[in-house]
Amino acid sequence: MSIQSPIVNPKSQSPRRGKIKLYFPLIKSSQTGLLLATGIAGYLSAGTRIGLLTLLGMSFSLFLAISGSTIMNMWYDRDIDARMKRTHKRSAASGELHHTEVFWVGMIISMLGIGWALTIALPYGLVVFAGWFFDVVIYTLWLKRRTAWSIVWGGISGAMPILAGRVLATGHIDLVGILLALAILFWIPTHTLTFSIKFREDYNNAGIPTFPSTYGETFTRATIAISSVLAALAIGWASVLIGISAGYLRLIAVLTAGLLLLAFATFRVQSEQVNFGLFKYASLYMLSSMIILAMKAFQP
Amino acid sequence: MKMTTLDRALLFITVFLSAYQIVVGIDDLSTAPITAYTIAFGVLLVAALLLIILGFDVLDSPIVVIVSTIIPLALSLGLVWEHLASYRALYLVFTIIGFLAVTLTRTALMQNHAHVPTITIAIVHGIAGVTIFLLPIILSIQGIMKPAFSLVGIGGALIGIDGLLLSFLKGGKPILSRDATLKIFPSLLLLMTICFVAGFKFG
């Protein structure tokens, strides 16, 4: 049976509210929210005068672009999602939504987001487009099914929102922007590799090459530990350059110590519990760091 | 025992209060106490976060005893450094040796000497606990610090109760049942943090 083929389901005839309910999981609200938070933090970290309309425009355009790229990812990966326990109920994978419709909705939302971003500021729009391109074309269409290293490109794409926010505030790509992007790039393996260890059977069933299946768990855990250190270094350096207060620097140091502790614990202990703990903590760490960096905008 | 929503809420407040203390609560102090208090409240913050994420099972880890030693040691070091200048070097040495002793006696080297880790932890926790409990109260009574500073001492007493309950539970001779200990644990942790933060703020 070809999984790519659409499965007609009576639920696809549901009213508009039902459609929204079906589409909402396709934008991965937590992930999109976290990436949006990085974009807002990137903008606020510059400490420039906050333009409320600009901030709102940035937030909505970024939200649309990220959501659009996620829907495109769901559209293309519906066959592998259908083979994984964790994802087989997603409406694109289960056939509740027709794949052609998902494609067009994804494209339209993406174009709206990127188009809006380009009208706000050209450099900002270009970075947003780059993030979409890396995610949809390089990561999803080209590399995800070919190599475990595709996560690097997924990481680069995930790093674009914070760079975009920073570029919108400063008008150019600066060292802080690059460091913030690197922090996200190195944080993403901490997040995704712990996930790929937890759901390794699912990924194996779907035939997706991952670090655990290609290089083994020990190498994967070492990669998680090293990337956590690099993420922490990048965010620490960026925080100093941004000029956040000593108190917030102390808080970042404490949160970073927790991340490093868990990263090395997952390398040494190799338990599902520690692995899951790292996965959750890494998300909290990134969200907290973003809030702290955004505080720069409110410092005297 | 499963963690309830209320437990998580109490732990979240503990996290926020600890974060507040790290960011603004100790800004006016000199480097050494700032470092000591940052470590103490930092460990508290990360521990509360891990409890929220992993649940009470995390308390079964053998590393908990070592980590939970850091909080009273670092807090008491900060207090001594701030208020007992002539004992600074001595207490710093005690802190380092105490921490190393607790860590080493919890390793495999001491498996054949079951009483050594217990005695070590009792001495280290005892001295640190008494320092946190008595010093702020004495300073308040003497009028050197405001009366509210004695709240830090009350926080010290609460951390002692927390530590005792956990130590006896882990040692197989629980004062309260496991469920009862875990049920009051988040509340005690929060109450202790409130006392510390309020004591430092208003004391």
What report would you give on this structure?
The complex is a heterodimer of chains A (300) and B (203). Chain A has 300 residues and is mainly α. Chain A is built from 14 helices and no strands. The longest helix of chain A has 26 residues, at 217-242. Chain A is globular. Residues 1-8 of chain A have low confidence and may be disordered. Chain B is globular, with a radius of gyration of 17 Å. Chain B starts with a helix and ends with a helix. The interface between A and B is medium-sized, with 19 and 17 residues.
Write the layout of secondary structure elements.
The complex is a heterodimer of chains A (300) and B (203).
Chain A: H1 16-23, H2 29-44, H3 52-76, H4 78-83, H5 91-94, H6 99-120, H7 122-143, H8 150-170, H9 175-198, H10 200-206, H11 211-215, H12 217-242, H13 246-269, H14 272-294
Chain B: H1 5-25, H2 31-54, H3 63-83, H4 88-105, H5 115-141, H6 150-170, H7 178-202
- Beta-strand percentage range of chain A: under 5%
Name the overall outline of chain B: globular
Q: Please give the number of β-strands of chain A.
A: 0
Overall residue-averaged pLDDT value of chain B = 89
| Rg of chain B computed from alpha carbons, rounded to a whole number of angstroms | 17 Å
Contiguous low-pLDDT stretches of chain B (5 residues minimum) are none
Ends distance of chain A: 63 Å
Give the % helix of chain B.
over 70%
> Segments of chain A where pLDDT lies below 50 for 5+ residues?
1-8
Mean pLDDT of chain A: 89
Helix content of chain A: over 70%
- Rg over alpha carbons of chain A: 19 Å
- Please indicate the percent range of residues of chain B in DSSP E strands (runs of 2 or more): under 5%
Let me know the largest β-sheet of chain A.
Answer: none
**What is the tally of helical segments of chain A?**
14
Spatial shape of chain A: globular
Query: Which chain pair shows the most residues in contact?
Result: A-B, 19 and 17 residues
Largest sheet of chain B: none
Please state the oligomeric state of the protein chains shown.
heterodimer
